[in-house]
Design a protein that fits this description.
Strand content: 25-35%
Domain Gnk2-homologous: 23-126, 132-239
Signal peptide: 1-22
Oligomer: single chain
Number of strands: 12
InterPro entries: GNK2, GNK2_sf
Shape: elongated
Number of domains: 2
Protein name: Putative Gnk2-like domain-containing protein
Distance between the termini: 24 Å
Low-confidence stretches: 1-19, 246-287
CATH superfamily of the largest domain: Gnk2 domain, C-X8-C-X2-C motif
CATH topology of the largest domain: Killer Toxin P4, Chain A
Order of helices and strands: EEHEEHEEEHHEEHEEE
Organism: Rosa chinensis
Length: 287
């Protein structure tokens, strides 16, 4: 697999709680399969996006189909992060359905990721099918402190497979966990699958994503792997809202909300893997 480091991305993020603003991460829409503007397919796509945007529920997941003939049918879904509120989910999906047609105006196969949600659609049915491609990796550019023993950090990362099991067996295919590394330093992790996957497929997807972490994010303070069917993230700060998480992993400790929400600047490196080299986009990540 060819690996391309695309760019450094500085984002302002709330360290503890999600907000209603949708933070764009990345999108992929190959131009190998396109549709004609103002066609029946585009009409069906518009109807699908409207349906998805108007069906944000407490479960944070919804899939739908639009079209009557095989050549013009569109399949789509959205997945919101399991710890966000219905309001945040609705806002993120609304943003995604609005922006995706600007970023991918004629492409039939699309995946777009935001910090709080993911939107995917295609001219081929993909419901209940585990997918690991295309894949995107993001990492925190800060290295783990030398005070943390390397083997201990590796052991904690390896324990993410336990969170994968918890997520796969939960009704919402979502789990979080806080694990103490040393002293006052803890590792916070979040794992999630699309809710149409079986427990076995969800677990497999998450384990595969976890296996990417040593390669993409070795000795980094944070990292995440995004697949169309699942995603994994860890940080050394509480980035998720445990008070509204749908299905926390067994043994996870509730996080005490801070006295005030602090904004911090987190520098990330975005990586993406393909079977061939792609062009590197501009520094603003807009297409």
């Amino acid at each position: 697999m060819a690996e391309v480091i695309l760019l450094f991305l500085s984002v302002v993020t709330l360290l503890s709680f999600p907000t209603t603003k949708a933070y764009y991460l990345y999108h992929i829409c190959p131009n190998t399969t396109v549709f004609t503007p103002n066609s029946t397919f585009q009409s069906n796509l518009n109807h699908l996006l409207s349906t998805l945007s108007s069906n944000t529920t407490r479960t944070g997941f919804y899939n739908a189909t639009s079209g009557r003939t095989p050549n013009d049918t569109v399949y789509g879904l959205f997945l919101c992060r399991g710890d966000v509120t219905t309001t945040t989910c609705k806002s993120c999906v609304a943003t995604a359905t609005s922006e995706v047609v600007q970023r991918c105006p004629v492409e039939k196969e699309v995946v777009i990721w935001y910090d709080d949600c993911m939107l995917r659609y295609s001219n081929k049915s993909f419901f209940s099918v585990e997918a690991e491609s295309p894949k995107v990796s993001l990492l925190n550019t800060q290295n783990v402190s030398i005070s943390i023993e390397p083997n201990r950090f590796s052991q904690v990362l390896a324990s993410l497979t336990e969170v994968a099991t918890a997520a796969a067996n939960s009704s919402y295919k979502f789990a979080t966990r806080e694990v103490n590394i040393t002293g006052l330093i803890s590792l916070y992790s979040l794992e999630q699958c699309t809710q149409d996957l079986s427990s076995s497929d969800c677990n497999w997807c998450l384990v595969r994503a976890i296996a990417e972490l040593p390669t993409c994010c070795s000795r980094r303070q944070g990292g995440r792997v995004l697949y169309p069917s699942c995603n994994v993230r860890y940080e050394l700060y509480p980035f998720y809202n445990s008070t509204s998480a749908l299905a926390p992993a067994p043994g996870a400790r509730p996080l005490s909300p801070p006295s005030s929400v602090t904004k911090g600047k987190v520098q990330l490196v975005l990586k993406i893997r393909f079977t061939s080299i792609m062009l590197v986009p501009g520094p603003d990540l807009k297409f």
